[in-house]
Design brief:
The complex is a heterodimer of chains A (about 850) and B (about 270).
Chain A (H helix, E strand, L loop, with lengths): L9 H9 L1 H40 L4 E5 L7 E2 L1 H8 L3 E14 L21 E6 L12 E4 L10 E5 H6 L7 E6 L2 E11 L12 E5 H7 L5 E2 L1 E6 L1 H4 L2 H15 L3 E4 L1 H44 L1 H9 L4 H42 L10 H27 L22 H18 L4 H42 L1 H12 L1 H40 L3 E9 L1 H8 L4 E14 L11 E7 L1 H7 L11 H9 L3 E5 H7 L6 E6 L2 E11 L8 E5 H8 L4 E8 L5 H16 L2 E4 H44 L1 H9 L4 H42 L9 H27 L3 H6 L2
Parallel strand pairs in A: 4-9, 6-8, 15-19, 16-18
Antiparallel strand pairs in A: 1-11, 1-12, 2-10, 3-4, 3-7, 3-11, 5-8, 6-9, 7-8, 13-20, 13-21, 14-15, 14-17, 14-20, 16-19, 17-18
Helix pairs in contact in A: 1-10, 2-8, 2-10, 2-11, 2-22, 8-11, 8-15, 8-22, 8-24, 10-11, 10-22, 12-13, 13-14, 13-15, 13-24, 14-24, 15-22, 15-24, 15-25, 17-18, 22-25, 24-25
Chain B lengths: L15 E14 L2 E14 L3 E5 L6 H8 L7 E6 L2 E2 L5 H11 E4 L11 H11 L8 H10 L15 H13 L5 E5 L7 H18 L3 E5 L2 H4 L4 E6 L2 E7 L4 H26 L1
Parallel strand pairs in B: 3-8, 3-9, 6-7, 7-8
Antiparallel strand pairs in B: 1-2, 1-4, 4-5, 9-10
Helix pairs in contact in B: 3-5, 4-5, 5-6
Bound molecules: adenosine-5'-diphosphate and magnesium ion (MG).
Chain lengths: ~850, ~270
C-alpha cells in the first residue's frame, strides 16, 4: 500500500505500514477485546428478545392477560372470567389452564430443579389448556398435520409440536400417556403444529388440550391459570385507552389478580437470567482490559523504540502537540479498524456463544438480534479504549527532548518504568488490597469497586515486575542453559536489557494468566460449594421421586425394605410472599421446602452461612412451627437476617414466619425457604410427599438398590429413583456448562497476552538485527539463534506465570465478590492447586508458541545486511 | 589572540543572524555541578560559515544545542533571527526553530521508513505544508546534493555519505536562517567527509546559507570563514581563514598546539 506523504499525519500511517506485523498484532488485540464485549452483548440481548418473543407468540394477539397475583401459573377461580366478560370494552376473554405434567415414558428422568446462576434442568411437558372453539381467534396455530382440537371442551385430544413429537417418536393418531396430579391419563394426538406461536413455549415441549381436560388432569376443576383478553378494536389501538382498561380490570378483579401486558411475563422470566448475564458482561470487560493493556504496552514500546526519531522530529520543529497527534492518529486508525473488525468477529463469536447460552439457560435463541446501540457502543468502546490506552504513551512521547536526536544509537534514556516505580506499584497494590479486603463497601458498589480494584492491582503489579527481572534472570540462567544450551543463557540475559519492554510483556502475560487462574479458582470454589451443598444439604444415598404426589405411608413401606436404613420425606410448594415483604423487582413467589424435623437430621443437614448454627438445633426449632431457614440469596435480596420475620400468604391468611437461620441453597435460583412439613400441612393443606431421601444400610450399593427398588415400585407408583452420585454429577455438569463460557472469556485474555509476547519478541529481534548478525558472524548457528529467542520468551513466560499465579488469587477474590453479587450467596474461597499449575503451564506454552515466529525471523537474519544496518 | 585575516566572503556590515551574550550552562548532577559553558559570547553574521573547535568535553555540543533552542540557558541571552529565546516558551521556541534552524548530525538521523525525497520534505510536512507545492525546491536540493537518481531510496539503501547529503538537503529545505551542524563528518571517511564539507562551503558561497559547524578536525574547520576555539566552556580564541586551505589547516593546527601547551603549562604551574 502506498501512502502518499502529503501531510504530517500520513507519517503515522507510514509507521503502521512499515511495521505490519506489529500493527496486525495490536489490531488483533483490539479485535478480540471488542468482539468479546459485543458477542456477550448480542447474546444477552438475543436471549432477552427470544424470551419476549416466546411469550409474545404464546400470548397471540391478546391485548391483556389476567393471572393470579404472585406466582404466575397459580390457579384462580373461573368466575373471574365471567367478571372480565362483563366489561363492555372486552371483546373476547379466553380461559387458559396450564400446568406441568410428564410423559409417562419420561418419568424416570424427572428431577429436582437445580439452578446455577439462572439455569435449570427441565424435561417436563407444559399442559396448555385452551378454549378449542375460540382460541384461534387470539393465537395462530400453524397446523402441519392432522386437525385442530375438536370443539368439545373436555375431549381427551392433544396437539403437539412436531419437533417434540419427532424427538419423542410420537405420531399423529397415536396416544400419549401423561402423568399428572390426577394420575395417569391417555390423550389422543389429533394434530401437530409447527414450533411457532403457542408451540414456542417450554422450548416446544407443550401439549395443547381443551381447557376442561387440563382442569381435570391438573385437578383444578373450576379454576383457571390465565385469562387472555382481546379489547375492542378502538381501544386496542390506543395505548392510553388500553391502560385505562387494564386499570379498570384490575379494580374489577381486585386483590389476588394481576392484569398484565403480554410482554410483561417475558420480562419476569428474563429477570431470572439477569445475574448470569451480568456475569458474562463482567468477564468480557476484563478481556477488554487485557486488550487495553496490550495496546498500552505496544504503544509504550513503540514510543520507546522511536525515542530518537521523535527527538529528531522535535528538533526539526515538530511541536509537542504534533507528536501527541502522531501517536494518537496511529491509535485512532488502529482503534477504528480494530473495532470494525471486532464487530464482525463479535457477531461470529455471538453465534457460538448463543448456542452455549441457549444450552445452559434452556431458552432457544431463535435469531441473533444485534442491538444497534450495542454496535455503536462497541465501536466507541474499541476506539475509546485504544485512545485511552495510547494516551499515556502519547504523553510520554510529547515530553521527549529534541536532544534525544543527538544520541548516537537508539538508546532510550527515559523509561516508563523507573527503578523506583516498584514503590508506586506496591502503593497501588496496597490501595487495591484495602479496597478489596479492608474497606466494607455497600453491596451495590461492590462489583464496580471490585473491578476498579482489579485494574489498580494489575497496574501496580506491572510496576513491580521490573524488580523481579534481575533476580529471576540469575535464577533462570542455569535452567535455561540445561534446556537450550549456551544460547539459552544468552537469551535469558537479554530479558534484562530491554527490561522496560520485558516488564510490560510479562505484565500482559501476567494479566492473562491471572484471569485464567481467577476464573478457575472461582469456578472451583463455586463447584465445591455446590458439591458440598449437594452432599450435606441433600444428603442421602437415593432420591425417590414421582411426578404424582406420594403418600407418607409409602415411606413406611420403603423403610421396611431390608436395604433401607433411614428415610425422610420432603414436600415442595411454591408460596407467595405477603405484599409488604417484597422489594421491587424481586419475585414474590419462593419455593417452600417442607422437611420432616424428626427424620431429616438422619439423612441430611443444612449448610449454614454462619457456622455457629447447627442442624440439630435448627431442626428442633423448625419443629416448633412458623419458623423458617431462608437461603442466603433470600437474605441478600429481601434484606432479611436471623430474628426477622417473613410473612407468607397462606390459606389461613398472612402468617409471619420467624427466620431462624440462613443457609446455602442452590435450588430454585436460591429463592428457597426451608420449613417443616407440618407447617405446609397446617397452612397450605399440603400432605403429600414429593421426594423421599433414603439412606441405605452399610454394604449396599446405591446403584444396585436404586434399580431394584425402581423395578419393584416404579411401575405401580410411577416413582423414579436417582442415586445421590448421579444427582451430584448432574449438578456438577450443569455448573460446568454454565462456567464453560467464562473459561472461553478467560482464554481470550490469554490469546491477547500471547499477541503481546509475539509483539515484544519481534521488536527485540528487529532491534537486535545487528547484534544477531554479529553473533551469526561469530559462528552461531541458526538453531542457536532460535533457541536464544525461545529461551528469552521462556524466561518471560516463567516470570509472567509466577506473577499471574500470585495475582490470579487476588482476581479470584474479586470474581467471587461478583458471584456473590450475582447469586446472593457467599462462596467460600478455595484455592485449587491444579488451577495454579494450569495457569503456569499455559504461560510456558504460550511463551514458546508465541516465540516461534520471532525465533524464525531471528534465525533468518542475514549476516551481511545486519552488519551494514546503519 | 591570533590576528584576524579577513576573507572575501565575510562582510562585517551584514547584520547578525545569531547572537549569544555571556551564555552559561551549568549541569547539576546531585552535588556535582558542571560548568559546561562559562560566559560565552558568540555572534554569527548572515551568510557566514563558522566552525566551533575544541577538544572533547569543551562544550561545543552544549553551545550548539543552546543556539538551536534545544536546551535552556543557565545565564545569558541568545537572540536567534531576532527572537530572544529566553523569553519564549517551548512551543514558541519550537516554531522559531522550525522556521529558522536546520540541523545536521553526526549520525544522519533519517527516518528509516521514508525515502530520501520524503526525508528531505519532512520539515515542510512538520510545518503543515504540502510538499508537492515545493517540488521545485526539493528537486533543486536533490540536484545540489547530487542524489536526483536516488530520490526514492530508503536510508538503508544509501551509503553513509549519501545519507548525510540527504540530511543536508533536509536542513536546507525550509530556507532556514541558520544551519547548525554537529560533527557532520565525524562518522564518515575522509574522502566522503571532504565532499560533504565542499557541499556546505558551496551552499554558503552560492546560496548565502549561514552555517555553524562543530568539529574537532582542523581539516573540516578550514572550510569555514571563521573558527572559534572553545576550551573548558570558554571561548579562548578566534581565527579567520584565508581561503588557502592547506595554509589554514596549518594555522589551525598551530593554534591548537599552542593552546595545548599553554594549558599544560597552566596545569604544571598549578601543581
Ligand atoms: N546532560 C548533561 N548532564 C551533565 N553534564 C553534561 C551533559 N551534557 C554535557 N555535559 C558535560 O558538559 C561538558 C561539555 O559537553 P559537550 O558539550 O558534549 O562537549 P563536546 O561536544 O565539546 O565534546 C562535558 O564535561 C560533559 O560531561
Ligand atoms: Mg560533542
Amino acid at each position: 500500500m502506498y501512502i502518499p506523504l502529503s501531510s504530517f499525519a500520513a507519517l503515522a500511517l507510514r509507521n503502521m505500514r512499515d511495521r505490519p506485523i506489529r500493527t496486525l498484532l495490536t489490531t488483533l488485540g483490539i479485535v478480540l477485546g471488542v468482539a468479546v464485549v459485543l458477542a456477550v452483548s448480542i447474546t444477552n440481548h438475543s436471549t432477552l428478545i427470544s424470551i419476549r418473543h416466546i411469550f409474545d407468540q404464546a400470548a397471540g394477539h391478546a391485548d391483556l392477560m389476567v393471572t393470579s397475583n404472585g406466582v404466575i401459573g397459580e390457579p384462580f377461580a373461573d368466575e373471574a372470567l365471567a367478571r372480565v366478560r362483563r366489561l363492555p370494552e372486552v371483546q373476547l376473554a379466553l380461559p387458559v389452564v396450564s400446568g406441568r405434567v410428564l410423559l409417562a415414558s419420561e418419568a424416570d428422568r424427572w428431577g429436582l430443579d437445580v439452578s446455577v446462576g439462572g439455569t435449570h434442568t427441565a424435561n417436563d411437558l407444559l399442559l396448555f389448556g385452551v378454549d378449542p372453539a375460540r382460541d384461534r381467534m387470539v393465537r395462530d396455530y400453524d397446523l402441519v398435520a392432522g386437525s385442530f382440537l375438536p370443539a368439545e371442551d373436555d375431549a381427551y385430544s392433544v396437539l403437539l409440536v412436531r419437533d417434540y413429537a419427532d424427538e419423542k417418536k410420537l405420531s399423529l393418531g397415536k396416544d400419549i400417556t401423561i402423568l399428572s396430579a390426577a394420575g395417569q391419563e391417555k390423550l389422543r394426538i389429533v394434530g401437530l403444529i409447527a414450533k411457532a406461536g403457542p408451540g414456542l413455549q417450554n422450548n416446544g415441549a407443550v401439549a395443547i388440550v381443551p381447557f376442561k381436560t387440563a382442569q381435570t388432569l391438573l385437578e383444578i376443576d373450576g379454576e383457571l391459570t390465565q385469562i387472555d383478553i382481546l379489547a375492542n378494536p378502538d381501544i386496542a389501538v390506543s395505548p392510553r385507552k388500553l391502560e385505562a382498561l387494564r386499570q379498570a380490570l384490575a379494580s374489577t378483579l381486585g386483590r389476588g389478580y394481576q392484569v398484565l401486558y403480554p410482554a410483561a411475563r417475558g420480562q419476569i422470566v428474563a429477570r431470572m437470567l439477569a445475574s448470569y448475564q451480568t456475569g458474562l458482561s463482567f468477564f468480557s470487560a476484563v478481556a477488554l482490559f487485557v486488550g487495553a493493556f496490550l495496546i498500552y504496552n505496544t504503544f509504550t514500546m513503540t514510543v520507546v523504540e522511536r525515542t530518537r526519531a521523535i527527538g529528531m522530529l522535535r528538533l526539526l520543529g515538530a511541536t509537542r502537540g504534533q507528536i501527541t497527534m502522531l501517536v494518537l492518529i496511529e491509535a485512532a486508525v488502529l482503534g477504528i479498524w480494530g473495532s470494525i473488525a471486532g464487530v464482525g468477529f463479535g457477531i461470529l463469536l455471538a453465534r457460538g456463544l448463543s448456542h452455549s447460552v441457549a444450552a445452559v439457560t434452556v431458552v432457544e435463541i431463535s435469531a441473533l438480534h444485534i442491538p444497534p446501540d450495542g454496535l455503536v457502543w462497541s465501536l466507541l468502546v474499541g476506539l475509546g479504549v485504544t485512545l485511552i490506552s495510547a494516551s499515556l504513551p502519547a504523553w510520554r512521547a510529547r515530553n521527549i527532548s529534541p536532544l534525544e536526536a543527538f544520541r548516537s544509537y537508539a538508546r532510550p534514556t527515559y523509561t516508563p518504568l523507573t527503578r523506583t516505580s516498584w514503590l508506586w506499584g506496591c502503593l497501588l497494590m496496597l490501595v487495591a488490597y484495602l479496597a478489596l479486603y479492608r474497606i466494607p463497601f455497600r453491596p451495590e458498589v461492590q462489583v464496580p469497586t471490585g473491578m476498579a480494584s482489579v485494574f489498580v492491582l494489575l497496574l501496580g503489579a506491572t510496576l513491580v515486575v521490573p524488580v523481579a527481572i534481575g533476580p529471576a534472570e540469575r535464577f533462570l540462567c542455569p535452567a535455561m542453559r540445561v534446556l537450550y544450551g549456551n544460547a539459552g543463557q544468552l537469551g535469558v540475559a537479554n530479558i534484562r536489557r530491554a527490561w522496560t519492554r520485558t516488564a510490560l510483556t510479562v505484565g500482559t502475560l501476567m494479566v492473562g494468566i491471572a484471569m485464567i487462574i481467577g476464573i478457575q479458582t472461582m469456578t472451583n470454589s463455586f463447584e465445591r460449594d455446590i458439591t458440598h451443598w449437594v452432599q450435606t444439604a441433600i444428603g442421602g444415598d437415593l432420591y425417590v421421586r414421582s411426578p404424582m404426589p406420594m403418600r407418607e405411608e409409602f415411606g413406611t413401606r420403603l423403610l421396611s425394605d431390608p436395604a433401607v436404613a433411614e428415610i425422610s420425606p420432603i414436600t415442595y410448594r411454591q408460596v407467595r410472599l405477603a405484599r409488604r415483604e417484597n422489594p421491587s423487582n424481586q419475585p414474590d413467589a419462593v419455593l417452600f421446602v417442607g422437611i420432616d424435623p424428626q427424620t431429616y437430621g438422619r439423612v441430611a443437614s443444612f449448610v449454614f452461612e454462619d457456622t455457629r448454627y447447627d442442624t440439630t438445633q435448627a431442626l428442633t426449632e423448625l419443629a416448633m412451627g412458623e419458623r423458617l431457614l431462608i437461603s442466603a440469596t433470600m437474605a441478600d435480596r429481601y434484606g432479611l437476617k436471623v430474628g426477622d420475620t417473613l410473612a407468607l400468604e397462606t390459606r389461613r391468611g398472612v402468617v409471619p414466619f420467624q427466620v431462624i437461620g440462613v443457609v446455602v441453597d442452590f435450588s430454585s435460583q436460591g429463592y428457597v425457604v426451608n420449613g417443616s412439613r407440618a407447617d405446609l400441612a397446617r397452612y397450605y393443606g399440603e400432605n403429600t410427599v414429593d421426594q423421599f431421601i433414603v439412606n441405605l444400610k452399610p454394604g449396599y450399593d446405591p446403584r444396585v438398590e436404586a434399580k431394584r427398588l425402581e423395578d419393584r415400585y416404579g411401575r405401580s407408583r410411577h416413582i423414579a429413583i436417582e442415586t445421590a452420585a448421579e444427582f451430584r454429577a448432574k449438578v456438577t455438569r450443569l455448573a460446568g456448562q454454565a462456567f464453560a463460557l467464562f473459561d472461553v472469556l478467560g482464554l481470550t485474555g490469554v490469546v491477547i497476552a500471547a499477541l503481546g509476547v509475539v509483539n515484544t519478541l519481534l521488536m527485540n529481534v528487529f532491534e537486535r538485527q545487528r547484534e544477531i548478525g554479529g553473533l551469526r558472524s561469530l559462528g552461531m548457528t541458526r538453531g542457536q539463534v532460535a533457541r536464544m529467542i525461545l529461551a528469552e520468551s521462556g524466561a518471560m513466560g516463567i516470570i509472567g506465570g509466577l506473577f499471574g499465579m500470585f495475582f490470579g488469587l487476588f482476581l479470584a477474590r474479586v470474581f467471587l465478590l461478583g458471584v456473590q453479587e450475582i447469586g446472593g450467596y457467599t462462596v467460600s474461597y478455595h484455592l485449587p492447586p491444579h488451577a495454579l499449575l494450569i495457569g503456569w503451564t499455559i504461560a510456558l506454552v504460550v511463551s514458546q508458541l508465541a516465540a516461534l515466529y520471532p525465533a524464525h525471523k531471528a534465525a533468518r537474519v542475514r549476516i551481511v545486511e545486519a552488519i551494514q544496518h546503519e | 589572540m591570533v590576528e584576524a585575516r579577513c576573507t572575501g566572503c565575510y562582510n562585517p556590515q551584514r547584520m547578525n543572524i545569531l547572537e549569544a551574550r555571556r551564555v552559561s550552562k551549568i549541569y547539576r548532577m546531585g552535588k556535582v555541578t558542571v560548568h559546561a559553558l562559562n560566559e560565552v559570547d558568540f555572534t554569527v553574521a548572515e551568510g557566514e560559515f563558522v566552525a566551533i573547535m575544541g577538544p572533547s568535553g569543551s562544550g561545543k555540543s552544549t553551545l550548539l544545542h543552546l543556539l538551536g533552542g534545544l536546551d535552556e540557558l543557565s545565564e545569558g541571552e541568545i537572540i536567534l533571527a531576532g527572537h530572544r529565546l529566553a523569553e519564549l516558551d517551548d512551543h514558541r521556541i519550537t516554531l522559531v526553530r522550525r522556521r529558522n534552524v536546520g540541523f545536521i548530525f553526526q549520525f544522519f538521523n533519517l527516518l528509516p521508513t521514508l525515502t530520501a525525497e520524503e526525508n528531505i520534505a519532512l520539515p515542510l510536512l512538520i510545518d503543515g505544508q504540502d510538499p508537492r507545492a515545493y517540488r521545485g525546491r526539493i528537486d533543486h536540493l536533490l540536484q545540489l546534493v547530487g542524489l536526483t537518481d536516488r530520490r526514492h531510496h530508503k536510508p538503508d539503501q544509501l551509503s553513509g555519505g549519501e545519507q548525510q547529503r540527504v540530511a543536508i538537503a533536509r536542513a536546507f529545505v525550509t530556507n532556514p536562517a541558520i544551519v547548525l551542524a554537529d560533527e557532520p563528518t565525524g562518522n564518515l571517511d575522509s574522502k566522503t567527509g571532504e565532499e560533504i564539507l565542499c557541499l556546505l562551503r558551496r551552499s554558503c558561497d552560492e546560496l548565502h546559507q549561514t552555517i555553524v559547524m562543530v568539529t574537532h578536525d582542523a581539516r573540516a574547520a578550514s572550510f569555514a570563514d571563521r573558527v572559534v576555539f572553545l576550551m573548558d566552556g570558554r571561548v579562548v580564541g578566534e581565527l579567520r581563514t584565508t581561503g588557502n586551505r592547506s595554509e589554514d589547516i596549518r594555522a589551525i593546527q598551530a593554534y591548537l598546539r599552542d593552546s595545548e601547551q599553554a594549558a599544560e603549562a597552566k596545569t604544571l604551574r598549578l601543581s
